[in-house]
Amino acid sequence: MKTYKSLKVPSDMKKYLQLPEELPQRVKDLARQLTGIYDSPFEKAMAIQTYLRQFSYDLNVPAAPSNRDFTDYFLFDLKKGYCTYYASAMTVMLRSIGIPARYVTGFVYQSTGDENIKEDYKPVTNASAHAWVEAYFPGYGWINFEPTPFYLPLYFEASYSSSNSPWMVGPNGMTDWYMNIYANNSVTPSTSVIDNNSEHNVKDNKTDIAANKKDFARLKSKSEYNGKTNLKAMYIFIFLFFILIVSIVSSIIIKKKKLIAHMDPRERAIWQFEGILHALAKKGFVKRTGETVLEFADRVSKHLEYEINFRDVASAFNRIRYAKDLRAGDIEIVHKFYCMVKK
Hints:
By secondary structure, the chain is mainly alpha-helical. It has helices at about 25-35, 40-50, 70-80, 85-95, 155-160, 165-170, 175-185, 205-260, 265-280, 295-300, 310-320, 330-340, and strands at about 1-5, 20, 55, 80, 100-105, 130-135, 140-145. It folds into two domains: about 1-115 and about 125-180, C8orf32 fold; about 265-343, no CATH class. Helices cover about 50% and strands about 10% of the residues. It starts with a strand and ends with a helix. InterPro entries: Bact_TGase-like, Papain-like_cys_pep_sf, Transglutaminase-like.
């Protein structure tokens, strides 16, 4: 295996830069071609993700020939596939330009509105299985990326939302951890047996009745005590679990703000435009596969009721993304529109 160094990463991250020796050179060349104009590792990762999301989503694709590299065959011949193809390709491309990356599998819960949901349990089947990518940025940790076009981009808000984030229902995520604790601490009722052959036999019915009343009272008192104790323990557990969730969410928000604060204006505007596309998709305006940003803007602008014309925002984004020089107000118009659609 060979590693390609670019970022200054911890030694334990070097394994996430490994590539097969036989990886075709044109795969590496494509990754460098897509990212060469960008300076920040985050923007390079976004460029690769954007490129892959222009391919087609298809579950019925042929297997790679035995004499072909899987990633090379996907990028230069197929140009379509499902999550396994996209996550594998992005992982390889990121590593080839020196960004530590790993292929992640789990489950993504996307409600259709038809499920029979009871007691806050949501059905997760094999149909919800998914693969995506995590890239490592020194100082920020692992960040999710979604290269598969069929799925909405994860970015920061979607990938860390407590309601629909993949790690919440992943095979080793918070849900499994919680269920394991709950199972191992469940209360098992005990059975008390009264020995009718005790050496201290009662003399008459009155004594039997009195003894049984005492036994019953003692068992009842013990049961009530255990019930109160278990209820108290449950409340404590729920409280601690709530504190844990709040701590995790707070940590994620701080990490997100820290990352955004260190972006240069262009990088922040590109991230905000991706957030605009995500917000519009939630409102029913989804960018089609192969559709350019301007084509998408021309199609949906007349249906949007905002003070700023989305066509102007899309034009500003194209200049921010591709032009050397910007017009006055390009970055500001993207920021203002981003704030509007996020309300």
